[in-house]
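Hi X.,

You mentioned you wanted examples for the new student's onboarding notes, showing what a folding record looks like when two proteins sit in one file. Here is a clean example. The first protein comes first, with its sequence line followed by its structure tokens.
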Amino acid sequence: MSHWTLNDIPWDRFDPAKVEPSILRLAKAASLVEQNGADYTRYLCNVFADDAEFQDAARIWGREEVQHGAALGRWSTLADPSFDHAAACARFSAGFRVDLDAERSIRGSRVGELVARCIVETGTSSYYTALAEVTQEPLLRAICHRIAADELRHYKLFYTHMNRYLARERLGRWRRLGVALGRIRESEDDELSYAYFVANEAPGAVYDRRRAHRAYLSAAARVYRPHHVERVVAMTFKAVGLKPHGRLNLLTADIAWRALRRRAAA
């Protein structure tokens, strides 16, 4: 059962005077990506077809992800009454589909799949924390705090099941690191860029992947601060079996922060 519902959100706190256009564009895009939770649930249940315990957990996770999209979509419609969330979701789903027929993990193993899921939750928990801290709009802040807490709990969920499977598959830390890096590179793929395009361009617009990708990354990079990046690196290190605190962590976080600043300035 979810820790909160849409009815728990203080919708009456919405302040239209404090809506920032750049944050609105990001929230619209996020509302579409989160709706993919149902498809990812089906994919995960296929990959873990003989693991009823994990399937039950994945279904709860998927429902919570869809709820995140619904909350962000409702806020986006308050902030921009012309935004048709349902229509945007339909356009997004038509242009970007998860492989629902896959029976094995695209990561090569179940441990690899769970490492990849940890990386996704690492990114989302930090992203929504950053959005909550940067926005001046009180309702969006409340929504993002709830979502960030869920995403951190989801990270712990996948991390726990990853350790359970490590006892069987024994995927070494360097191979886990390879999976993690691969999943991080996938942030360059179409899912985020296309969501940003669909959420913020007119229905008849032509998708220019490079332009949409650049626009999304530039906007998203601006919400981060050094402590968010340090958290991403620490959680990533933990997922792959490296020490989450220390010199290597600090060096990696510094490199990642500099790269983000370059993206923000692009």
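Then the second protein repeats the pattern, sequence line and then tokens:
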Amino acid sequence: MPYGYYYGFDWTYLVLVLPCVILSMWASARVNSTFKKYSQQYSIRRVTGAQAAQRVLSAGGVGGVRIERISGNLTDHYDPKTNVIRLSDSVYDSTSVAAIGVACHEAGHAVQYARGYVPIRLRAAIIPVTNFGSKLAMPLILIGILLSYLGNFSYTLVYVGIACFGLSLVFQLVTLPVEFNASRRAMEAIENAGLLTADEQRGAKKTLSAAAMTYVAATATALAQLLRLIILFGGRGRRRND
């Protein structure tokens, strides 16, 4: 039985993971409610999300980036492979404070790539490795446990599986500065270009701050899950040999 289980009760999930799950749910609800609130506050200057993104690119001296519409809600993103900023229906042609904040944030990612911002380049480089590792993690851990009768080799698989899962935490840790920096670039561009008034800027900043909390919650969840795996399985091989 894994170390964290007592009479079939997994205290590691309750103490480590559940609070992070609750934080993630709260962050998701908050970003939706904040976006909805400031989607109803329209900018005085009537600049659309697509226009705002283009102004950020122009101010940053970045050319050749297309801005396209994409369906869905809060599906906005920058695709570095095609060099395209995709803005959702609620952002692309909306003149709301929330839409301008989100559009400028995505344009901020394009500026990051154009200027060789190291964290975003690093994140792009490790995506294939982290995706591969996250898919292998649990199968390796489960195989290691099932083959426990083989001795130390099985626990080697468990340790490799835990290490693979740890790659997801590395990705989240790299993502944090990328997202915070993009939001900072967005707010600076909004202020310098006069896209929003001072009062409207506060709404845009609150929208981006709410979105940033989802990344903080994702990082906390990845860390909690990794600690849980280490507690449950990390010392089993050592205890077996004692």
